Amino acid sequence: MQGSWRRVALAASLSITGALGGLVAAAPAQAQTVESGSVSFSGDPGDYISGGGSYAYSTDNGDQLTTNASTDTSHVSIDVNGYNGDWWYLDFDAPGSQPLTPGTYDNATRYPFNGAGPGLSLFGNGRGCNELTGTFTVINAVFGPNGYVQTFDATFEQHCEGGESAARGEVHIANPPAPAPLDLELGVATDGTANSINGKAVVHGTVTCNQPTSVTLTGVVDQVVKKVLVRGNFSAVVSCTPGAAAPWTASATPNGSTPFGKGAAEVNTEASGYDSEYQQYVSVSDTSIVTLSRS
Fold first, then answer.
1. N or C: which end of the chain has fewer CB within 10 A?
2. Final residue belonging to a domain, choices 174, 209, 229
3. What is the pTM of this model?
4. pLDDT in tens, 84-103
């Protein structure tokens, strides 16, 4: 959280002073902690970003690295929170929506204002380029689902404001294979009931999952009764654990005065659960014809 705040704060501060020309940089939405990695760079005399010095950070030395990729794997960001208090941010962006694959990307300009061309940006410790040109080479890139970065090795060279002085560096990231995302399976039984007293339709089914999660089910029951469309909404919440189907039951109250009755009905159901591995909701839907019997 501290590094994310500093990224936004630096961008806002330098935008106001004009040093970054209006950059609005947001922290990665799903940043992951790097298990094993390093970032190092050094600069020529006169390079504004490095001040002509050398910098090296590694998880082996207690420095914290976080990273994430865009869902189309066209962009990778790396945040450095140095054990000594240093903080730096690196961005690599492929042209357009192309995935970042091994190769050299010439004529890079400042991310995120690189348009259809490749983008690059190294900034931090209170310093950033207004305009930059550069090049970077992706040596290895392995991604998982939802922006997970498993392996990323790259080198880069960056020039600020069209100057000859440059900052040059490299990044190496090694994480375990990506965990499986949440997989939900929704089943809707083809039998249900229409209560003769309150007119409600009762439907049921099962959900299965590959990680523990609370599943919210919502849906609509539609039935034509004596040429009248009867519609009712339903909802239910069940706890799902891997290895066993979790049963669910829900009642739909008719919206009008006509009750649900015996016969076929269309049931549209959506199940939604939270994926704790990737910090996002996953939904699946189903449309089934359910035969209601009197109860």
1. N
2. 174
3. 0.76
4. 999 999 999 999 999 999 99
